[in-house]
Design a protein that fits this description.
By secondary structure, the protein is α+β, with helices and mostly antiparallel strands. Helices cover 25% and strands 33% of the residues. Strands 1, 2, 3, 4, 5 and 6 form a six-stranded antiparallel sheet that branches.
Length: 133
């Protein structure tokens, strides 16, 4: 039983680490979700132990237009010993009000509930396997 749980945990972890997908858009393009571009395989080239691929959602007040703008993209974030991600958003384009870093597929979208099919499958398996065995 324990081996099965470890297997599903490894599969879920591998999916997060090796196949992170993010949204990408800049400024007015972020107003319409249809203009967002998919960025598959975010962070595949990360070789440093203390860094990881991540998705970023930054909301800032544009210095010229004084309007709130959004930026979504794939980044390389710093990873602490406990696995938490951190990234310092640049204020070059204007004052940042939101700087969210995450590491789940398309987690830098608008507010929504995201889940992984592998994680769901793992939860179902953990529930059903003891009943079968």
């Amino acid at each position: 039983m324990g081996k099965i749980v470890y297997f599903f945990a490894l599969v879920a972890l591998a999916q997060v680490v090796y196949s992170l997908d993010c949204w990408s858009c800049q400024g007015k393009d972020c107003d319409e979700k249809t203009a967002w571009k998919q960025v598959p395989g975010c962070g595949k080239a990360v070789s440093a132990k203390n860094q990881a691929g991540a998705c970023l959602k930054q909301v800032y007040t544009d210095t010229i237009s004084k309007k709130d703008m959004t930026r979504r993209k794939c980044i390389i974030a710093d990873k602490s010993d406990d696995g938490k991600l951190s990234f310092t958003c640049s204020d070059n384009d204007g004052k940042t009000s939101v700087c969210d870093v995450c590491n789940a597929d398309y987690c830098n979208s608008a507010s929504a509930v995201n889940f992984s099919f592998v994680t769901l499958l793992g939860v179902v398996a953990v529930y059903l396997i003891p009943k079968i065995l």
